C-alpha cells in the first residue's frame, strides 16, 4: 500500500516539500542544541521543563483521542465512524511519533536514552510512559495497517485483530493516565498535585484530539472531497462538546479547591497564571485568552443549532483547540514550576532555537500524517469508498 | 527476477562500496602499526599485567566506576596484594601522566572516542 | 507509616544479624556502635574501604543558623564546596549550585509573621537534604540518582544520567542543578580541583555529602570550612555530635509535611 504515497498532485508534493524545509531548519537548530546543550533553550534551574515537554503532554492527548472513534465503533457497533476511523488511528501514530521526538529533544544526553531500557526502573513513571507510548504506537500501526489492508481487499478484517482493537481502547486511556501520573505524583508541585489530574488530561484530550481531527476532516472535504458523513460529524461534535464541558468543569473544580480551602500553595500557581506574581505576569494574557476561548467554544457547541452549523463549527473547533493548547501546551508546565520551590518567580521565555525545534517536530508529524492519510484515502478511492 | 537488470548491478555497487575499507587496505598494503606509547619511567608494574590491561582496561574502568560510584567501594587489591584507590584520575593517571601519548595515541588511531575526559580532568604535567 | 517501615527495617536488620552474624563481624566498629544504639544497620557497609574511612548508617547535618550572620562565612562554605567539586560559576537562571544561602522566607515557605529581625536577616544554607524518602530517586528512570542503602546518602551517577530532569521537577527543595551547557568554560582552570571530575553538559548534579571525602576519612568540605557552624554525623548514633545537638537545641527541617524526611536540620 506504501506506493499510494508516491503518486500525488503537485500540491501534495509541494506541501511535503514545505514541511521538509521546516523540519530541515529545525533540525539545524537541534544540531546546534546538541552541540551546545540545552542552554540554548529558555529553560532554567527553576523552570526545568519547557515547551518540549508541554507539547509532548498535549500530543499524548491527541494520540489518545483516537479511542473516541474506536470505542463507539467496536464496543457499541456504531457504524457512522467506520469511514473515518482509520484517519483517527493514523493521526494517533503521527501524534505518538511527535511525542517520542519531543522526549528525545528534551534529553540532556539523548545518546544515553537506551539507559531507560538497560536499567529498567519500574518505580519511575517515565519508565512506564516509555512502555505505554511505544506500545500504543505499535498497536495503532498494526490495527491501522491490517484493517486498511482488509478494506483494500474488500474482506472482513481477520478475527485476531479484534484483540488488538480492544487492547487499543484500554491502552489509549493508559497513555494519558500514565502521562498525568508523571505530574500528579510529585510532592511540592501544587498545580500538578491533584487527584483529578488524569481525569483532566483525559477530558482535555477527548475534546482537543477529535477537534483537531474534525478540523482536518473539513480540510479534506475541501481539498479532496472526502466526506466523513453528516452523522459522523454530528456525533463527533457531540463527543467534543461533552468532553470540553467536562474539561472546563474539572478546571473550575481545581479553582474551587484552591480558593475555598484558601491554601496559599494551591492558589499560588493559579494566581500567577491569571494575574501574575511579584510583577511577573508574562503568561496572563494567554491564560485569559484561553479562558475566554474555552467559554466561547462551549457557548457555540452546547446549542445543537450552532453545533450543527457547518459554517460555524470549524471556527468553534479552532477556538477550542487554541484554548486547550494554551491550557495544556504551556500553562500546565509554567504553572507547575512557578512560583518555584522558594516561592519566588523565574519566568520562562522559550528561545528561538527552541521554537524552531518545536516547529520542526510538528512538521515531521504533519509529514507522517500526510503520507499515512494519503495512503488511507488512496485505498478508499481505489475500492470506491469515497 | 523482477527488474534484475537494475537490482543486480545495484547490489554489486552497494557491496563494493560497503566493503571499500577492507579491499582498499588489502590493495594498498597498509599495515597497522601499534602506536608507541609513553610509559611511566619510574614505575615497574601496572596494577594488572600489561597484556590484560591492553585488552581489558575498558572493562576494568567500567567495573571500577560502578563499584566506586554505586557500591561505595574505594580500594582495589592487586594480585600482589598492593592496595590502590579505584580512580581513573588519581590512580591510573598519576602514573600515566601523558594522556596524549598514552590514551589518545591508541584511541585516535583506532577511531575510538571515549568521553572520559569531558568530565575527568586530564593530568596536568602533560609533557 | 515511616515508623512502621523503620521498625520493619530494624527487625530485618536484627534477623540479618542473627542469621549472618559472622558476615557482619567484618563490618566496621562504628556500624557495630550504631547497632549498640538500637539501630542495627539493615545493610552491611561496603567492602574495600580505607581504614580511616568515616562510617555511618544515616548521615545527617545540623546547621546552626545563628552562626550564619556573617556573609563571609556563607561565602567560605560555598567556596569550599564549589571549588572542591568544580562547580562552575554561571550567572543567571541557568546557574549551578550545590550549597548556597537563602533568606528565611525562601528557606521555610511556611512561616510566621512578626519574626525577630535577627532571624529574618540570617542566611540559611541550602543544599540537598539527602531525604530518607527521596522523590528524586523515586522518579529517576535509570537509577542514575539513588540512595545508598548503607548510609542514606542520595548519590548521583553522572555516567548514567540521561538528563530528563524529572528529578528536578520532583525535588521540593530545588536542590538540583542541570548542566545546560558544557561547564568547563565557566571554571577557572587555575582553581580547578585536579582530583575531582567536572561534569559534562546534559546531566543533573547536586550535593553528595562529599562521599569521596568521607571515604578518605575527611568531613564534608562545607563542614570543615564552617568553623563548627555546620555539624555532620550519624543520625542513627545517639552519641554523635548531630544527635547531641538535636537533643539539646530546637531544630526544624524544610517542608516536613511532604513526607520526604530530610536529613538536614536547622537550629533556629
Description of the molecule:
- Chain A: Pfam families: NrfD.
- Chain A: InterPro entries: DsrP-like (IPR054823), NrfD-like (IPR005614).
- Chain A: One of its GO terms (cellular component) is plasma membrane.
- Chain A: Keywords: Cell membrane, Membrane, Transmembrane, Transmembrane helix.
- Chain A: Belongs to the NrfD family.
- The complex is a heterotrimer of chains A (386), B (127) and C (268).
- Chain A is mainly alpha-helical and 386 residues long.
- Chain A has one domain: Up-down Bundle (Formate dehydrogenase/DMSO reductase fold).
- Helices cover 72% and strands 0% of the residues of chain A.
- Chain A has helices spanning 10-36, 51-64, 67-75, 85-106, 115-118, 125-152, 161-184, 197-224, 230-261, 264-275, 284-301, 304-307, 313-337, 352-382.
- In chain A, helix 2 packs across helix 8 and helix 6 (125-152) packs antiparallel against helix 7.
- The radius of gyration of chain A is 21 Å and the shape is globular.
- The model of chain A has no long low-confidence stretch (mean pLDDT 94).
- Chain B is mainly α and 127 residues long.
- Chain B has a domain at 48-116.
- The longest helix of chain B has 21 residues, at 50-70.
- The radius of gyration of chain B is 22 Å and the shape is elongated.
- The termini of chain B are far apart.
- The mean pLDDT of chain B is 89.
- With 268 residues, chain C is α+β, with helices and mostly antiparallel strands.
- Chain C has one domain (57-265): Alpha-Beta Plaits.
- Chain C has helices at residues 2-19, 21-25, 29-36, 71-84, 104-107, 117-121, 135-139, 166-170, 211-214, 221-225, 241-248, and strands at 59-64, 99-102, 124-127, 145-147, 154-156, 177-178, 204-205, 230-234, 251-252, 264-267.
- In chain C, strand 4 (145-147) and strand 5 form a beta hairpin.
Give the radius of gyration of chain C.
19 Å
Strand content of chain C: 5-15%
Helix/strand/pairing category of chain C: alpha+beta
Encode the helix/strand succession of chain C as letters: HHHEHEHHEHEEHEEHHEHEE
The shape of chain C is: globular
Largest sheet of chain C: 4 strands, mixed
Low-confidence stretches of chain B: none
Domain module tally of chain C:
1
In whole angstroms, the N-to-C terminal distance of chain B is 64 Å
**The CATH top-level class label of chain C:** Alpha Beta
Helix content of chain B: 40-55%
Architecture per CATH nomenclature, i.e. the level-2 architecture of chain C: 2-Layer Sandwich
Structural class of chain B: mainly alpha
Find the CATH topology of chain C: Alpha-Beta Plaits
Order of helices and strands of chain B: HHHEEHHH
Transmembrane segments (chain B): 6-27
Organism (chain B): Megalodesulfovibrio gigas (strain ATCC 19364 / DSM 1382 / NCIMB 9332 / VKM B-1759)
Keywords (chain B): Membrane, Transmembrane, Transmembrane helix
InterPro entries (chain B): DsrJ, Multihaem_cyt_sf
